[in-house]
Prior knowledge:
Blueprint: H1 5-33, E1 35-36, H2 39-47, E2 57-60, H3 70-78, E3 88-91, E4 94-97, H4 102-118, H5 121-135, H6 141-149
Amino acid sequence: MGLPGPIARVLADSLAPSIARWSSRRELEISAAGGPLDADLQDFADELGITEPAGIRVHFTSEVPLPAPALLIRFAKAIGLPVFHPAGMALGRAIAANRPDNALLRHELVHLAQYQRLGGHLPFMRRYLFECLHHGYLDSPLEIEARESS
């Protein structure tokens, strides 16, 4: 279990706007550098109810960046918060991934469906951050859904 609900809510609501802005900028960068999904992944995105799967872009990169400055990441590590380097990240209608792995991409596509269902970058980030801070990353309901649906 993570932080108590009220504290997690305050932190998530405080951090979400800046992370949503970062997410929106990164989505544009990934979209510009990335390519389309293959046919099987487009079919999976369609099954998830994602609108216009052909418009989703995937960019393969050696390191998927975290949405925080290096100083903040070092601080988080120093106080014992779990900081990891993700293999993939869904941002709006774009995916950054460190390898062309269908299981990873299917997981990230579930997150793209969540973005759409929740209404975009800011509502997604508010909920995602709250769940990770309150339940922990592995027990976050959005992460559980992505693991179980992919």
